[in-house]
Amino acid sequence: MRDLQDYRIHSSREQSVITGGSAFNIKAKSLRLGDFSQPEVDTLLAEHTQETGQRFTPAALTLVWELTQGQPWLVNALAYETTWEMAEGRDRSRAIDAPQIQQAKERLILRRVTHLDQLADKLREPRVRRVVEPMLQGTEMDRATTIDDMQYAIDLGLVRRTSEGPQIANPIYREVIPRELTTIAQMNLEAQQQTAWYLRPDGRLDLPKLLAAFQHFFREHSEAWLERFDYREAGPQLLLQAFLQRIVNGGGRVDREYGLGRRCSDLCVVWSYPSGVQRGVIGLKIRYQSLEQTLAAGLEQTWRYADATGAEEAHLVICDRRSTIPWKEKIWQRSEQHAGMAITVWGM
Fold first, then answer.
1. What is the overall mean pLDDT for the chain?
2. What are phi and psi of 275, to 5 degrees?
C-alpha cells in the first residue's frame, strides 16, 4: 500500500490551524494526485479513529468513497470538514455519519474552496471544454477533440475511463462542474426566482409549478441567456440546472447523471420538508430525431433513473433547438404512462 503520509502535506493556509491531532492535511493547491483505493480511504479515516477515538459509521465510509472515488484532496477535505469545521463533529464521542458527510460536501461546494476554484479555472481551457462539453450534452465527442485532450482531462483527474466510456471522475465533480459553469446565471436568477414561490403548504416543492415557470422563462429568455455560457452547446442543460440550483439551495440538492453518448441529462431533486424527504426526477433530452423517437427514448431513460433513485415523481423535458420552429409549437405539456409510472412531459 502506498504511504498515505505522502498525501498529507501541510499548506501554508492550513498550517496555522492544523496541529498534529489531525490526519487530514493535504496541499490545498494540488488539483491532481494519484487516487486512493477504497481500502486506502478506509485506512486514512481509521487513523483519525485511532488518534481520537471518534469513528466513522460504515455508511459514512461508503459515502466518502462514493462521492470522491478516492480523489485525495476531496477525501481529506470531507474528513477535515466533518471532524474539525462542523461543531457536531468536534464532539469526539459522536460518530461521523452519512448525513454529516453529505452536509460537508455541500459546505465545501458552496464555499468554493481553493481546490474547487482551481477546477473552475481548468474548465475554461479549450482542450478541457472539448472533452467535458459533450458529456454535459450527452453526445459523442467532436472530431476536433484529440486523444491528447482526453489524456489531459484524465491526467487532471477530471475524467476517468469506465466500462461505459469516459465519465466525469466522481459525483462531487459531476455536481461542481455545472454549478461552476452557471455561477453568474445563478446570481442573476436570485432576483427573479425565489424558493418560497414553489413551496406547497406541507413544505414540499411544487415541481410542476417550477417546471412551468422554467418553460415560460426558457421561451422568454433562453436566446439571450444561452449566449452567455462558455459551453454554449450544453446551454439548455446548464440553464435548467442553474434554474433548479437557485431554487433548491435553501433546503435541498440536485443529484446529476450525465455522460458521453447518454443523449439525456438526468437530475434528481432531493428536498427535505417537515414530514420527510421528497425525491423528484427530471430528465432532459434534446430533440434530434422525430418527437415520437425522442419521447420513447426519454420516457424509458427517465423511468429507469426514477426507479434507481426511488423518486416518487418524474418529469421529462424535451428541448427543440430548431430555429425554424415557432415557439407556439415548441411549448406544450402532457402526461404519459411508462412501466406503470406517470411521467409529465414538457416541450420547449
1. 89
2. -100, 0
Predicted pLDDT at 20: 36
Sheet holding 265-273, edge to edge: 252-257, 265-273, 276-286, 313-319, 341-347, 332-338
Which own/partner contact pairs does 41-48 have at CB distance under 8 Å and 24+ positions apart? 41/65, 41/68, 41/70, 41/75, 43/1, 43/4, 44/4, 44/75, 44/76, 44/79, 45/79, 47/4, 47/23, 48/22, 48/23, 48/24, 48/79, 48/83
Cα distance between the two ends of the chain: 53
pLDDT of residue 29: 46
Beta bridge mates, 337? 342
**Contact criterion met (CB below 8 Å) for 279 and 319:** no
Q: What CA–CA distances, in Å, run from 65 to 42, 52, 101, 172, 345?
A: 9, 21, 11, 11, 35
Q: What's the grid cell of residue 140?
A: 459523442
pLDDT digit string, tens, across residues 255-272: 999 998 888 999 999 999
| Residue 37 to residue 18: CA distance in whole angstroms | 25
Q: Give the Cα separation of 192 and 348 in Å (integer).
A: 20
Strand, helix or coil at 261? coil
Q: What is the DSSP string of 275-327?
A: TEEEEEEEEEEE--S-HHHHHHHHHHHHHHHHHHHT-SEEEEEEE---TTS-H
CB 243 within 8 A of CB 189: yes
Residue 18, amino acid: I
